[in-house]
Amino acid sequence: MLDLKSKKWQDTAINATVPFFLVQLSPGDPAMFYVSPDAPPDEVDRVRERLGLDQPVMTRFTFWLGEVLQGNLGVSFHQNRPVLDAFMDALPVTLWLAGFSMIIALAVGIPVGLLSALHPNGAVDRFSTIFVFVGVSMPNFWLGMLLVLLFSVTLGLLPAQGFNTTSAWGGFRSLLLPAITLGYSQAALIARMTRSSMLEVMRQDYVQTARAKGLRRGVVLGKHAFGNALNPIVTVIGLAIGSLVAGSAVVEVVFNLPGIGRLVVDSVMRRDYPMIQGILLLTAGMIILVNLLTDLLYALMDPRIRYD
Q: Does the pLDDT value for residue 252 go beyond 60?
């Protein structure tokens, strides 16, 4: 039986209502973007009526929510096409970018965190501290512009903007710099959590006992230490996936990628209310789904927290 008072259901209800009212409070009249600057007031009124903006806010919200419950997110003001179709067309680029960024974050963050934990207060640990500090502090757009300046403008090795759909190699080259830009900050967070979690586990009695029994170092670290340190790391990875999907807007704008982030930025600039509301709602749903899958993954990794 569904518990409507549970936090997840409350979050879902909030995610369904906040995008609508948040968009309605934004300044500017969308009708002014679809008429000439010197258009007479009656023409502006006709456009507002065509867009459905002449109705009270609560009336528009009730109609929008009813359509959403039926799977209809509305029609874009600017593109004049269903919001869901535009979202699905832009989704593959964002998913490829997020997936590629996650691979980079895991491939860099976990080894850096492990090496830092195995050599505390050493040269590797100091390098890890600098790596994490820079990754957490540097804005994505600044890192992206630096990478473009180095690899595209100076060296001419990778494309600066756009997404190449003619070949797999072209798509890979198009996503490499954006993925590094987006994945670096998440790699820093994963490295920091891996280090702290491993240091805490390695001080536990069962790890010291395994060492005293003469087990090989790889067995102690891989089976006894890292396996028990995974829960906090998986938590950060789950949050990182949500951040990659929701936080790709800046990177997609910098590299001119036709993804969800670029779509929502363009929609905000044009006051395309249905598109903004639909993207925010769908993105929030994706993040909730990732968090749910992360919770389920806990039970697979740690039998102690299963609900048997």
A: yes
Tell me the whole-structure pTM to 2 decimals. Answer: 0.79
**What span, in angstroms and rounded, lies between the C-alpha atoms of 106 and 293?**
18
Determine the Cα–Cα distance for residues 13 and 68; give it in Å rounded to an integer: 12
Q: What digits encode the pLDDT tens for the residues 27-43?
A: 777 777 777 777 787 88
- What percent of the chain lies above the pLDDT cut of 70? 89
Quote the Cα angle for 91-93-98, to 5°.
90
Round the CA-based radius of gyration of the chain to a whole number and report it. Answer: 24
What average pLDDT does this structure show over 246-250?
77
| Topology annotation, domain 91-305 | MetI-like fold (1.10.3720)
